Amino acid sequence: MKKKLLCVLLIVVMLATTVSLIACNKNSAGEANFVVPEGGYDGSAVTLKFYHTMGANLRAVLDTYIVEFNKIYPNITIEHEQVGSYDDVRTQISTEINVGAQPNIAYCYPDHVALYNVAGAVVQLDNLINSTEEGIGLSDAQKADFIQGYYNEGKQFGDEFMYTMPLSKSTEVLYYNKTFFDEHNLQLPKTWAEMEALCAQIKQIDPDCIPLGYDSEANWFITMCEQYGSPYTSATGDHFLFDNDTNKSFVKMFREWHKKGYVTTQEIYGAYTSGLFIEQVDTNSYMSIGSSAGATHQRPAKDETTGEYPFEVGITTIPQVNASNPKVISQGPSLCIFGKENPQEVVASWLFVKYLTTTVAFQAEFSMVSGYVPVIKSVGEHPAYANFINNADGGANIAALSAKVCLQQEAAYYTSPAFNGSSMARDEVGALMIKCLTENTNDVDALINSAFADAVDECEYNS
Questions:
Q1: Nearest to 220 by CA among 402, 432, 405
Q2: Residue 315's pLDDT is what?
Q3: Model-level pTM?
Q4: Domain check: are 161 and 262 in the same one?
Q5: Are residues 318 and 362 in the same domain?
C-alpha cells in the first residue's frame, strides 16, 4: 500500500506543478469552465482519443455503435484504446496531463477525476448539458430518464458542477443459497439485526459453516456510515470525518460477529468470498455480499454427471439499518471529458458521450454483455433487454437476475464525496475493518479507538 500511496503522491506533485496546457475556459465564480461555442458543433473533422478498460466483447459492442454514431456525425473519428485496469487508466492520463497529451474522453471513477482536477483538466459539463444550441444539450426528458443516483454521481466534487456522465453501473447485492433457504424455511434479512439472528440460526443448522461472506471491507464500512447517517468524508473542509462513536459501534458489532464465526471478508478469507459460497466443500457459506456485476462468479459449476447446478442462487438487496430508508452503493465506470485547445474537440467529445449514455439500444446491449446495469430507465422498454430481464433466474440467467434486483432499488443509490485523497480514505477504512475484526486483544475499545485514530492520521498525512 505504501508503494501505491507513493505513486499517487508523485502524480499529485507532477499535476500540481504543471503549467496548464489545457484549454478549458477560465472558470469565473459560479460559471462552468467550458463555454459552448456559438453554433455548437460546426461539422469540422476531429479525431477523439478514448481510454477505457473494455475487453474484446465490449469493444465489439462499442465498435458497432461507433458506426451508428458516425452516420450522424461522419467527421468525428473515434480512436479508442484499452489501457488496462482502471488504475492504469488513471496513471497514464495523469502522466499525459503533465505535457498536455491527455485523451479526449476516459473511463473514470470519482477519485480519478479529483486527481485530474489538481491540474484543472476535466471539463465541467453543465454548459453542454444545458446548451440550447441545436443537438447539444440534454432535454428535460433525457435528464429525467437517468437513474438519478447514477446521474448525480457527476456532481459529488464539492462545487456543484457536473464532471462526469454515468456509462454503466453496479452495486452490491446479497447472493444466497436459495435451495438451502427453502429447505430450512429461512427468511431473508431486511435489516442487519435480522442478519445477525439469521447467521445464528444457520450456525445451528451447520456449525462448521461461515454463514456470510462480504467481499469489500471498505464498501461495508462506507455503506454502514450512509445507512446510519454518520459522517464518513467531506469533499470540502475537513475531509476525514469517520472517527466517531457511531462508526466505532458498528465496527465493534461486526467484530463480535466475526468472533462468533458469522462472517468473513475477502482479505480475511484470502480470496473472494464467492469461493466459500459456490464450492460446497469443507467450510461452506450460504450468503455472499458482492458486486452485482459479478453474478456469474456467484453461481456454482454444473454437476458434470447431471448437468444441473448443485443449488439455486437467489439474489436480494443487502440488509439495512432502516429498511424504510435503504442505501446501497453506486459503482461502475463513468465518462469524463478533458479540456483541449480546440473547443470543437470538446463539443464533439460531448456528442459522443451523450450518444453512449442516452442511446437506448447501446445501453441495452452494453449492459447485457457487461453484466452492468443500464443508466437510463427507458432501457427497460427495449424488447431485447425486457426479454433478458423476464428470463432472469438463479442459474443460466443469473446476470439478468442481478440486474433485475439492481433496477428495483434505483431510489436507494448513494455515492461518497470525491476529492483528492478520497481513495486513501477507502483504503484506510478497509484496513481498519480488517484490523478491528481480527486482532486479538483484551481491550477491544482501545484497539478500535487506536485503529480509527491511526486511519485518520494516515489519511491526513498522505493527502
A1: 432
A2: 98
A3: 0.91
A4: no
A5: no
